[in-house]
Amino acid sequence: MTPQLTPQHADPQAGAAVKAVDREHVFHSWSAQGLIDPLAVAGAEGSYFWDYDGNRYLDFSSQLVNTNIGHQHPKVVAAIQEQAAKLCTVAPGFAVDVRSEAARLIAERTPGDLNKIFFTNGGAEAVENAVRMARLHTGRPKVLSAYRSYHGATAAAINLTGDPRRWPSDTASAGVVHFWGPFLYRSPFHAENEQQECERALAHLEQTIAFEGPQFIAAVVLETVPGTAGIMVPPPGYLAGVREICDRYGIVLILDEVMAGFGRTGAWFAADHFGVTPDLLTFAKGVNSGYVPLGGVAISAEIAATFDQRPYPGGLTYSGHPLACASAIATIQAMAEEKIVENAAEIGEKVLGPGLREIAERHPSVGEVRGLGVFWALELVRNEETREPLVPYNASGAANAPMAEFAAACKRGGLWPFVNMNRTHAVPPCTITAAEAAEGLAALDKALTAADEHMG
After folding, report:
1. SS3 189
2. HSE-up (13 A, CA, CB side) for residue 174
């Protein structure tokens, strides 16, 4: 293996070789294999990564919104190395110091009485197991989730997902019912303000429950703040209202914090902003910034008690993998010691939020700016008055050209964007500095001229 290249030491020949082998043997997710051109990455550090041609990119995507502590954090790298020298792997049925400590540190930060942690390999498996727990706890089959959502690509998780990635795998037999969550900018409830949106969204959810039969509904699954679907921060009172509805009907509330958790919104968990404790909370991504695959479910005392004398029918060979747990411990400790969660909150409040709103004033293609912490979305439109999206829903090929042009402009300016449908998300590492954030805003400001050219 060649040593990591710095941006100052380009090696295009090595990059070409990496890409050639990739194209020959790697099957990429969510892609038509013959239509993609993956960037060969040579290295990364902090808020940046770079290719073999010496091009450096400010990572405004945090890869898949998971490198919350940035790339190659030295304390986490060292923890993985130390654990590898001590104990690389052990079956999940044993008690191991790093697994226990990782669970303790996570439980200390989860809301309410979510004190038991079931470890998985990632977010989708966390959602799968949370739903299984809810169904077994309640003895009910149905699960409700929102249309604008993403919960993972495994069997139950993809059926819970509300975006078009669900369609090819949706068997219409998974016991999932979708409903509309609140989103004032594109309100399905014809609301004129956040209070109306909240009230009408809650009434819609309760009516859906009534028509589906509350006695048959095991759980409501919600991303606390939806991620890939658009970073729609719920209006005040909405999550508390969902909690009350669930309590009234004996329905388990599952909050999916796979993307929103571990500092992303400027709090340890997004639920902290709303004062709501779910019965089950799923996590992954930011728990160790993706350095080693890890996810999990934080479980309430009541649901955990269901399995005190009754075996839980689920498990994973790599549940609580020592290398992953060591990286989680180091990540959480670094976040606490270096005040990374506080930095995310401050950057959002003082730099990203104000900066993105200023950009919106200069660019007619920006219909709305919304977010928290280092978790922001820009809704791009063709017409400010009608709010027509810059590209159609689930556009591809020529229909998606305006967003493709915008993304290309970002990359030419040294910014790696997170683009989905007609939106671009500003989701840099929680460790980003004010100067780096300003650099990203300047590149974004320049790239948005490509979107402005497509105004109707």
Report:
1. coil
2. 23
Does the CA dihedral 277-280-282-286 come out positive or negative?
Answer: positive
pTM of the model: 0.96
pLDDT digits (tens, 9 = 90+) for 92-135: 999 999 999 999 999 999 999 999 999 999 999 999 999 999 99
Confidence check: pLDDT of 8 > 80:
no
Residue 295 amino acid letter: G
What amino acid occupies position 375? F
CA distance 40 to 22: 9
Region for residue 213 given its phi and psi (left: phi exceeds 0; alpha: psi -120 to 50; beta: otherwise):
left
The set of residues, in sequence order, having a beta carbon less than 8 Å from that of 197 and lying 6+ positions away, is 182, 183, 184, 187, 189, 191, 235
Element (H, E) at 359: helix 353-362
Q: Are strands 116-120 and 295-299 parallel, antiparallel or unpaired?
A: antiparallel
How many CB atoms lie under 10 A from the CB of residue 403? 24
Look at residues 233, 314, 320 and name the one whose alpha carbon lies nearest to residue 271: 233
- Alpha-carbon distance of 192 to 184, in angstroms, equals 8
**CA–CA separation, 41 and 49 (whole Å):** 7
The three-class DSSP label of residue 300 is coil
Name the 3-class secondary structure at 278.
coil
State residue 154 phi and psi, 5-degree precision: -80, 175
Q: Residue 435's CB: how many other CB atoms inside 10 A?
A: 9
Q: What number of other Cβ atoms are within 10 A of residue 380's Cβ?
A: 26
Residues in the chain: 456
Q: 220 phi and psi, to 5 degrees?
A: -110, 125
Q: Which of 448, 422, 429, 421 is nearest to 352 (CA)?
A: 429
Q: Identify the CA nearest to 195 among candidates 184, 210, 211.
A: 184
Assess contact for 234 and 202: CB atoms under 8 A. Answer: no
Q: Give which of 412, 413, 389, 415 is closest to 402, Cα–Cα.
A: 389
Distance, in Å, from the CA atom of 315 to the CA atom of 334, rounded to the nearest integer, reads 29
- Residue type at position 166: R
Residue 131 is which amino acid?
V
Q: Model confidence over 215-245: pLDDT tens digits? A: 999 999 999 999 999 999 999 999 999 999 9
Report CA Rg, the chain. Answer: 22
- Bridge partners (DSSP) of residue 222 are 255
